[in-house]
Design a protein that fits this description.
This protein is an alpha+beta fold. It is 49% helix and 16% strand. It is flat and about 65 Å long. The two termini are 13 Å apart.
């Protein structure tokens, strides 16, 4: 699920306001439950996509050891619980056959995402850290602790992780009470509080989205599928950057990736300038400063990449 789609669906919940007291309670509980469901679906979907990406073109033995071990233990757990409706779409024969291909180091093996993304509890922060670690992404907490989107949400860079943990835990506890019908009319959240939770979940999902994109980009770079085109040497107003790039042909409409210490974003080129002259396309052989207007904020001192859609 794309973050933009998630954002639209979360904000739709603000319109589910009715006058009848009992109907208000039921609608409110459904909205809170749906907000959490969107969040959980996003996390599982983006990790499923990462697992598929990470396993393509490599042998099972090439995967991080923690990922191999996590997959094995997850497979055993799922095989023991195939009667659970959560795993009703999975086939015992397919699970075993795919794992045998993986163990035999056959190329083209398929990993079942549920073997790595399984969880018994709602996705509080410690659960997310455990699942991401299983999937070979062990830097979620450090990434979140310094991410500008969370700094902006909390209006301060202080104790980001602690505040994130508390906020997510309070939301999930409220969701659980709503799901079990334990919310009274005087406990219904106002529109401002609903919007706040929606904005919080959107920020967390965007942080996760950028982290997974960073790992994909670094994986492609390590495989020499892509390479850095250069770096952002200056950030100007109106989403304009001066990039020092080389060995590439670029044109208006192309997409670039900007990888910085705290951000990893995709941006589209809206216009190009070379020596103050507008250009539709450029072929750059040696290091050259190019003015590039983007469709979103610039990431200062970022490395510039061009890659398939990530």
């Amino acid at each position: 699920m794309e973050p933009s789609i998630l954002e639209a669906q979360l904000h739709q919940q603000r319109y589910l306001l009715v006058e009848d007291t009992q109907a208000r309670i039921l609608t409110h509980c459904a909205s809170i439950s749906w907000m959490y469901a969107l969040f959980e679906q996003f996390c599982e979907a983006i990790l499923g996509d990462w697992i598929d990406f990470r396993s393509k073109g490599c042998l099972f033995s090439d995967l991080p050891e923690k990922m191999q071990e996590g997959y094995k233990s997850g497979l055993i757990m799922i095989l023991s619980n195939l009667s659970n409706p959560r795993y009703g779409h999975l086939s015992e024969n397919n699970l075993i056959a795919n794992y045998n291909r993986a163990l035999n180091n056959e190329r083209g093996f398929t990993l079942t995402p549920e073997c790595l993304t399984h969880h018994k509890n709602n996705l509080r922060w410690p659960d997310l850290l455990e699942i991401f670690g299983r999937c070979g992404i062990g830097d979620l907490e450090g990434w979140a602790a310094n991410h500008p989107l969370l700094t902006d949400y909390f209006d301060s860079p202080r104790k980001i992780v602690e505040r994130l943990i508390r906020k997510l835990s309070v939301f999930i506890q409220y969701r659980n009470e709503a799901a079990h019908g334990k919310i009274d009319v005087d406990q219904i959240l106002g529109l401002e509080d609903l919007e706040d939770y929606a904005n919080f979940l959107i920020a967390v999902c965007a942080v996760i989205d950028e982290l997974v994109r960073k790992h994909k980009l670094q994986r492609l770079d390590s495989m020499e599928v892509v390479g850095s085109l250069g770096s952002v040497s200056e950030s100007l107003s109106n989403h304009i950057m001066v990039g020092t790039i080389e060995g590439v042909s670029i044109k208006v409409g192309d997409y670039l990736y900007l990888l910085g210490e705290r951000r990893c974003v995709q941006r589209q080129i809206l216009s190009l300038q070379l020596s103050g002259v507008e250009q539709v396309s450029l072929v750059i052989a040696k290091p050259t400063e190019v003015g590039i207007k983007l469709d979103g904020p610039v990431v200062n001192r970022a490395r510039i990449y061009r890659a398939p859609h990530l």
